[in-house]
Amino acid sequence: MKEISRKLRDKRGYEFPQLLHNELYDLMVQYEISTKDAETYIHHFTQIIISYLEKNDCYKTLEIYLGEWRKEEEKTFFDIGRKLDFIIKKISYLEKAEISSYSIIDIDAQIRKESLYKVHHFTTFISEFPVA
């Protein structure tokens, strides 16, 4: 463990969790620990080490969390990109099939037009009755 500590001491926090995982995994392989058990031990060791870093090295801890956040953001942007590509494909399919598609603004304008006509018609209808 001291050797792992020396190897990782100067590593940036962004890459630290993955490097720690790799080093611990290599250590577990040397001791012929099963993959399932090794992953469990690695998870717990990593949590203990990060907890220690939170108390003793706030800059590295900040880099670790920012690195995790960056990975999550990249995944989120990738997922959004995939969904937008899917929407673009569907819209192009609708255009090729000559199916009309309306925006929210178009639908809202149509509803307002119909509502104004009905309100005007209803008001005219009501005004024809005498008020007692």
How would you sum up this structure, described in words?
Helix content is 81%, strand content 0%. The chain is built from five helices and no strands. The protein has helices spanning 2-8, 16-30, 35-56, 58-96, 104-127. Helix 2 (16-30) packs across helix 3 (35-56) and helix 3 crosses helix 4.
Please sum up the structure shown.
This protein has 132 residues and is mainly alpha-helical. 81% of the residues lie in helices and 0% in strands.
What are the defining features of this structure?
mainly alpha; 132 residues; single chain; elongated; 81% helix
The number of strands is 0
The biggest sheet amounts to: none
Number of helices: 5
Task: Compute the average pLDDT.
Answer: 85
Helical fraction: over 70%
User: Helix/strand-derived class?
Assistant: mainly alpha
In angstroms, what separates the terminal alpha carbons? 96 Å
Poorly predicted parts: none
SSE topology string: HHHHH
Shape designation: elongated
Summarize the SSE layout with pairings:
Elements: H1 2-8, H2 16-30, H3 35-56, H4 58-96, H5 104-127
